[in-house]
Amino acid sequence: MSTLVIDNLSIGLPEGADRRFAVKDMDMAIEMGQITCVVGESGSGKSMTANALMGLLPPGVTVEAGKAVFNGEDVLSLPEARKQALRGAEIAMIFQEPMTALNPLMRIGEQISEVFAAHDLYTPSQRREKALHLIREVGLPDPEKIIRAYPFQLSGGQRQRAMIAMALALEPKLLIADEPTTALDVTTQAQILKLILDLRDKHGMAVMFITHDFGVVAEIADHVIVMREGKVVERGRAAEVLGNPQHDYTKRLLDAIPTGKLPKARPPRDVPALEIRGLRKIYRTGGGLFKPVREVRAVDDVSLTVARGEVLGLVGESGSGKSTLGRTAVRLVTPDGGQVMVGGTDLAALSDEELRKERHKVQMVFQDPYASLNPRQRIMGALTAGPITNGVPRAKAQERARELLEIVGLGAEAATRYPHEFSGGQRQRIGIARALAMDPELIIADEAVSALDVSIQAQVLDLLRDLRERFDLSILFITHDLRVAAQLCDRIAVMQKGKLVEIGTVHDIFLSPQQAYTRQLLAAVPGADWAKENVDA
């Protein structure tokens, strides 16, 4: 028996949008106890469909046609009071970024209890007990501590579990999960996927799981719906769609997934672009009357080398220290000890004034290119500010900027536009062009593709591969996904709790990992079993 039946749904966009409809003539059924994955790139309409069901469409976006019948009621045409009664109690939603969905000023227990209060259920003490029970059910550690914690005191995976606890509070019949694992490292993602499967089995819920990653589909889906530009282009049982896709777009999405197929090994070169020797970074918090100082060794005596023209992947979970190492290498973070040798110069030992003259040698590409670009500055300004500051004549810097925009596939005309006028993948290309504008000896790419759709991710990886060949670039490529590292890297270094636990060629790490932690990372990759046949020794 279907829990939700969507019939001929069309969602209109405001005037001036690239197209008229966010969703056009959509049909879908989700059954009790089943997980239906809705798959597609950004802009395909999958999140708009979910927001319409929850009554959370943004201003100017409207349902223009169709029905969404849930337990006999069309949720799209209900009065607002009835929609509010349904939200949480019958239909609940987990959002992609829990830090923005959670109230930063409220403790976790209060936020879970607020779900009961909104529906006028239970006494305050009963709400607390039920919040504790939910915290235990979703597997959060030390429930008595978690219930009093604020969101910023939890890790990304813990915040997502807290969001799931809130969604489960009133035991809904339909759970909508909108990209709930996209920003998580692979081991945490595997834990969240297992949790959703366990909760589906325990509560018998229907689950609408929105994702762009067919690896996730292979792990959890019973049924799959593929969307493109607001329309359903393919649907079927997960095994059928994964094993025998019919639509060209579905085939392209599947082809874009990093499967773990290993490239041919490149012979290493002797000339180092980066030498890190005994690097240490310690964060200290607390201290004072009756409070001991708490130390976190984010980077603990790490040594590694990136050769000229080499791509070294730095892999590990959140909190492993990989991003701190990258930021320390570029001196966005000051190390507490060790050396960072670039072109014979120890960047770690330079004064601020000396560092300004040498910083052009190492440039960084960040995970969120929109946050790292000035929204009020045209792209030309973003690409020329660094070179001009370093003494390059303005005309020459602008000519180089236009040339780089052509190289990264955006075209010179992009120079006159602002960051908000570009997609996420295009903004990442701008970030790469900005790094190249300084003619660096080394680029540090910190999770540069982790937030992108798989097809856009594949394009950016292709671009980095091409730039490496064209400019003989050295790249320290930081990622939590070993599949992604395998597509681009010559060697992989694995970090855990601030320490370097294993380093070797891509073939060594994938085919004969020495450390249990490395094997754990490989096993946690979504769809790993499904992709095994694509691994090429």
Structure report:
Residues 533-537 have low confidence and may be disordered. Helix 11 packs across helix 18 and helix 17 (424-436) runs parallel beside helix 18 (454-471). The chain has 22 helices and 20 strands. It folds into three domains: 1-90 and 173-183 and 203-257, P-loop containing nucleotide triphosphate hydrolases (Rossmann fold, 3-Layer(aba) Sandwich), CATH 3.40.50.300; 101-171, no CATH class; 308-335 and 347-534, Rossmann fold (3-Layer(aba) Sandwich), CATH 3.40.50. The protein is of the alpha/beta class and 537 residues long. The chain has a six-stranded mixed beta sheet with strand order 6-7-8-3-9-10, sandwiched between helices. A six-stranded mixed beta sheet has the order 16-17-18-13-19-20, with helices on both faces. A four-stranded antiparallel beta sheet has the order 2-1-4-5, covered by helices on one side.
> Counting H and I runs of at least 4 residues, what is the number of helices?
22
- Widest sheet: strand ordering: 6-7-8-3-9-10
What's the structural domain tally?
3
As a whole number of angstroms, the C-alpha radius of gyration is: 25 Å
Helix content: 25-40%
Secondary structural class: alpha/beta
Our estimate of the beta-strand percent is 25-35%
The multimeric state of the shown protein is single chain
The main pleated sheet reads as: 6 strands, mixed
Supply the CATH class of the largest domain: Alpha Beta
- Average pLDDT, rounded to a whole number, is 89
Question: Which fold name fills CATH's third level, the topology of the largest domain?
Answer: Rossmann fold
Number of strands: 20
| CATH architecture call of the largest domain | 3-Layer(aba) Sandwich
* Silhouette: globular
End-to-end gap:
46 Å
Query: pLDDT under 50 segments (min length 5)?
Result: 533-537
The CATH superfamily of the largest domain turns out to be P-loop containing nucleotide triphosphate hydrolases
